[in-house]
Amino acid sequence: MASSDEMVNVLEECRVSPPPNAVGEKSLPLTFFDLLWLHFHLVQRNLLFPPNLREPEIHYVDGDSVSMTFAEFNRDFAYLIKNHQRKVAHFYPLLPQLPPVTLFPNSGISFGFTFDHVVVDGNAFIRFIRLWATIHKLQREPLMLEGAILPFYDRTMVKDPNKLGSIFWQHHQKIKFEGYRPLLPTSNILAAILLSQVDLQRLKKGYGSMPNVVTCLKFYTRVWSGEEVSENELEHFGFVADCRACLDPPLPENYFANLIGEAIQEKLGSNKGVLEGLDKWVVNFSSINIERAVGVAGSARFAVYGIDFGLGQLQKRESISIDETRCISLHEGKDNKGDIQVGLSFPKIKMDAFASIFTNGLSVYD
Where do the DSSP E strands lie in the chain? Predict the structure, then answer.
């Protein structure tokens, strides 16, 4: 059988940029919410490091552009959009380091995206995709659309009285940057499990009342239950929360950058606010044993399946990055917003074991 790369036929390569002289030179400073993510992935392009080693910033000059590739892929479209087990390597030709827009003849189109948390969080990124889709569908200029849908860029609204930005930047300057490392295909299996509202109600019997938290905790305990680990070894479960409405003053929902922090219910309800202890977050994270940690990518609140390019209903969203980040992914159900789609990437043996354990685990709450 031919490899996945050999089945991709590049149709066109181009670069996309604003019209000449339409947009002047612009810079956006990084707030401490953005600098926090330099610990994970350092953006190589569109970040300017001033010569005096101040904090980096996002920088645009006339003529800057992004690459765009259109391709054709002869793999079975219907096979890829199912929830069943599929080889994750089959999805890598659809990722942006190869063609980001891929045609499946007589079947459908795939859009591949990559974004870095240094520049934007998931909420802002999905809003950008929704704006792009609306412009494409309605064939209208962005300024003709309602103001609430346009990105809000004013970074001065993020106050930093405790100088967290300087703390994070000083920490990152001590870390050697080894360059961008593209994702490489693994032999893992990708699968999605759809939890209906009935399933979620059953899970709540043992795990509380918040759907996203219920789902994460259930999957967390089941994912690693087959691994041998000392009962005294500390395990970590990480997820984040949108802090736009939690700041003083609150920021608008369309704020384009990062506004995510530790999602701890006790902290969100605390009078000390969501920024309490954030100055130690990067150092604390560095001490975590990554092999005993699992995270969450995405959110069921993003309403991705409601995005409409005018090309028909979105059939499937996959988060391929979970293949190497030790995360599970969360999305809302395609046909029912109250359902939750959980994405997993495991070796075949572990995936089969997990499916059996989880199915039996659900039956406990019948």
Answer: 8-16, 26-29, 47-48, 57-60, 66-73, 86-87, 101-104, 108-111, 189-195, 236-238, 240-242, 260-262, 293-298, 327-332, 340-346
